[in-house]
Amino acid sequence: MANYRYWVGILSSFLLFSLIFLAQKGGVFNGAGTANSGETGLLLFVIPGVIASHLSSKKRILCPLLGALYAVPLCFLILPSNSGHGIK
Fold it and tell me: What confidence tens digit (pLDDT) does each residue in 56-66 have?
C-alpha cells in the first residue's frame, strides 16, 4: 500500500504542477496589474507540494520533488521558442 501512495504523490504533484503552469501561462491568475506588485502567482506552485506530501505515505518531501522535477521538461516544451524563454 505504501508503494501505491508513493506513486500517487508523484503523479498528483506532476499533474498539479503542470496545471498551475498552464494556468499561469494562459493568464488565469493575473496579479493586480500594478507596477510594484511581485510575482504572487509563483506562490501557487507551493500547492502541488502540499497536496502531494499529504497523499504520500512516508516520503513526504521526495514525492512532491520528483513530481515537480518530472513536470519541468514538459513545461519547457510548452513554452514557445520565439519568446526567448523556451528551449532553442
Answer: 878 888 888 89
pLDDT at 33 (0 to 100)? 57
CA distance 23 to 48: 13
Distance CA 39, CA 62 (A): 26
Q: For every residue of the chain, which 3-state class applies, written as one string? A: CHHHHHHHHHHHHHHHHHHHHHHHHHCCCCCCCCCCCCCHHHHHHHHHHHHHHHHCCCCCCHHHHHHHHHHHHHHHHHCCHHHCCCCC
Cα angle: 57, vertex 9, 2; to 5 degrees: 35
For residue range 6-16, list pLDDT tens digits in order: 888 889 999 99
